C-alpha cells in the first residue's frame, strides 16, 4: 500500500485547529468574547494527565481560555457536582469536560447529567445524546466519533449512501454515537460487540470499518475487505519486548494497511482529531451563547 493511503489525522486536525483559531479571533473582535474550556481531572492517572496537558496547550494555542481543575482521588461526588455547578454558572466557561473514567465512589452518569447541555462539549449528556439520535434540536456531537466522520467524509465524500459501515464497539462515548453519525450520512450500519457471533465475517462486509474496542491489534488484516476505509479509534499502551511502552490501536496496522484502501495510524490518526473537535465544539458553544449562528468549521 502506498503511503497516500494513510489517513493523516494529525495534519487534518492541525487544519481544523487553524479554522477554530480564526473563528475564535472573529468572536473576540465582534463580541469581545473569548471561548473558555474547563477541564476537570479527578485522580492522578498519568495517561489522563498527558491528555489534559495536551488539551490545555492546544486550547491556548487556538486563542481560547483554559481552566484546569485537578482534584484528588478521594474527591466525593458532592464535591464534583458542586464544581460542575460552579462551572455551569460561570459565563467565561463555554465548555466543560470531566475526564473519564472517574474514581469508583463517583457516579459518572450523575456528573455528566449535571453538566449544562449547552456546555457539554463531550456530547455525553442524555440531552445531547437524545438530540443526536432524534434530530430534535442541535446536539453537541461527541468529539471522537465526529472526528472519525470528518476523516471519512474527507476521503469518501459527505454522502455515504450505499456503503456498508461496521462499528466494532457499542460504548456511549464512541460506538453508539459513531453508528448514529454514519446512519445520518446514509451509510448502512452494523454495530458489532463482544457477543457478536462471527466478528471476522462481519468485518469483512465493511466498506467502512470503525474499530473502537480497546483490545490491542485485535482486528487482523484478513478481517479487512480489500479497499475498505479503516478507522482505528483504539489507544492501547503496550509493553515492547525491550521493556518500553508503545501506543497501538485496535487494528493490526501493518497487516490491515496491506489490504485497506485507506487507514488511520495510531498515534497520529483519530486521537488528534478528538482534541481538535473538542475545541471546535467549545467555539460553537461560545457562538451560541453570544446569540450567533454556528460557525462553519
Ligand atoms: N482516539 C481517541 O480519541 C479515543 C480513543 N478511545 C479508545 O477507543 C477504544 C474504545 O473505547 P471505549 O468505547 O471507551 O471502550 P469501552 O471499553 O467502553 O467499549 C469497548 C467496546 O468494545 C467491545 N468489545 C470488547 N471486547 C471485544 C471483543 N473481543 N470483540 C468484540 N467487541 C469487543 C465491548 O463490547 P461489550 O459492550 O459487549 O462489552 C464494548 O462495546 C479504547 O482503546 C479507548 O482507549 C476512546 C475514546 C477516545
Ligand atoms: N470526558 C472525556 N472525554 C474524552 O474525549 C476522553 C476522556 N474523557 N477520557 C479519555 C479518552 C481518550 N481520549 C483521547 C484524546 C486524545 C488522544 C490523543 O491525542 N492521542 C494522540 C497521542 C497521545 C499519546 O501519545 O499519548 C494520538 O493518537 O496521536 C488520545 C485519546 C479522550 N478521551
Ligand atoms: Mg470522546
Automatic annotation (TrEMBL):
Tetrahydrofolate dehydrogenase/cyclohydrolase NAD(P)-binding domain: which residues?
Answer: 142-288
The signal peptide stretch is: none
Q: Which GO terms describe its molecular function?
A: methenyltetrahydrofolate cyclohydrolase activity; methylenetetrahydrofolate dehydrogenase (NADP+) activity
**Where is NADP(+) annotated to bind?**
169-171, 235
Task: Tell me the InterPro entries matching this sequence.
Answer: Aminoacid_DH-like_N_sf, NAD(P)-bd_dom_sf, THF_DH/CycHdrlase, THF_DH/CycHdrlase_cat_dom, THF_DH/CycHdrlase_CS, THF_DH/CycHdrlase_NAD-bd_dom
List UniProt keywords, sorted A-Z: Amino-acid biosynthesis, Histidine biosynthesis, Hydrolase, Methionine biosynthesis, Multifunctional enzyme, NADP, One-carbon metabolism, Oxidoreductase, Purine biosynthesis
EC annotation? 1.5.1.5, 3.5.4.9
What chemistry does it catalyse, as a reaction equation?
Answer: (6R)-5,10-methenyltetrahydrofolate + H2O = (6R)-10-formyltetrahydrofolate + H(+); (6R)-5,10-methylene-5,6,7,8-tetrahydrofolate + NADP(+) = (6R)-5,10-methenyltetrahydrofolate + NADPH
What Pfam families would the database entry show?
A: THF_DHG_CYH, THF_DHG_CYH_C
Locate the Tetrahydrofolate dehydrogenase/cyclohydrolase catalytic domain: which residues?
7-122
Q: Does the keyword Secreted apply?
A: no
Q: Give one GO biological process term.
A: tetrahydrofolate interconversion
> Pathway it belongs to?
One-carbon metabolism; tetrahydrofolate interconversion
Task: Tell me if Amino-acid biosynthesis is a UniProt keyword of this record.
Answer: yes
Which CDD domains does the record match to this protein? NAD_bind_m-THF_DH_Cyclohyd
Q: Which GO terms describe its cellular component?
A: cytosol
Biological role:
Catalyzes the oxidation of 5,10-methylenetetrahydrofolate to 5,10-methenyltetrahydrofolate and then the hydrolysis of 5,10-methenyltetrahydrofolate to 10-formyltetrahydrofolate.
- Protein family (similarity comment): Belongs to the tetrahydrofolate dehydrogenase/cyclohydrolase family.
Q: Which PANTHER family match?
A: C-1-TETRAHYDROFOLATE SYNTHASE, CYTOPLASMIC, C-1-TETRAHYDROFOLATE SYNTHASE, CYTOPLASMIC-RELATED
Instruction: Outline the subunit composition.
Output: Homodimer.
| Record-given protein name | Bifunctional protein FolD
Query: What organism is recorded for this protein?
Result: Limibacillus halophilus
Amino acid at each position: 500500500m502506498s503511503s497516500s493511503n494513510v489517513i493523516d489525522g494529525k495534519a487534518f486536525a492541525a487544519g481544523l485547529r487553524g479554522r477554530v483559531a480564526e473563528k475564535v479571533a472573529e468572536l473576540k473582535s465582534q463580541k469581545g468574547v473569548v471561548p473558555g474550556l474547563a477541564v476537570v481531572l479527578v485522580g492522578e492517572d498519568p495517561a489522563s494527565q498527558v491528555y489534559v496537558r495536551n488539551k490545555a496547550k492546544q486550547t491556548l494555542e487556538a486563542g481560547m481560555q483554559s481552566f484546569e481543575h485537578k482534584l484528588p482521588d478521594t474527591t466525593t461526588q458532592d464535591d464534583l457536582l458542586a464544581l460542575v455547578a460552579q462551572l455551569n454558572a460561570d459565563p467565561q466557561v463555554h465548555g466543560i469536560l470531566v475526564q473519564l473514567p472517574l474514581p469508583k465512589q463517583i457516579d459518572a452518569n450523575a456528573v455528566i447529567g449535571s453538566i449544562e447541555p449547552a456546555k457539554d462539549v463531550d456530547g455525553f449528556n442524555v440531552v445531547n445524546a437524545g438530540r443526536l439520535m432524534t434530530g430534535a434540536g442541535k446536539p453537541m456531537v461527541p468529539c471522537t466519533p465526529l472526528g472519525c466522520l470528518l476523516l471519512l467524509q474527507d476521503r469518501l465524500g459527505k454522502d455515504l449512501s450505499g456503503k456498508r459501515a461496521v462499528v466494532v464497539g457499542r460504548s456511549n462515548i464512541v460506538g453508539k454515537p459513531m453508528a448514529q453519525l454514519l446512519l445520518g450520512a446514509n451509510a448502512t450500519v452494523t454495530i458489532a460487540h463482544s457477543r457478536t457471533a462471527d466478528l471476522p465475517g462481519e468485518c469483512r462486509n465493511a466498506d467502512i470499518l470503525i474499530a473502537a474496542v480497546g483490545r490491542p491489534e485485535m482486528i487482523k488484516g484478513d478481517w479487512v475487505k480489500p479497499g475498505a476505509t479503516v478507522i482505528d479509534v483504539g489507544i492501547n499502551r503496550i509493553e515492547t519486548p525491550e521493556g518500553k511502552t508503545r501506543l497501538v490501536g485496535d487494528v493490526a496496522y501493518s497487516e490491515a494497511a496491506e489490504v485497506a484502501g485507506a487507514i488511520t495510524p495510531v498515534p497520529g490518526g483519530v486521537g488528534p482529531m478528538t482534541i481538535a473537535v473538542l475545541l471546535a465544539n467549545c467555539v460553537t458553544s461560545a457562538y451560541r451563547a453570544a446569540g450567533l449562528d454556528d460557525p462553519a468549521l
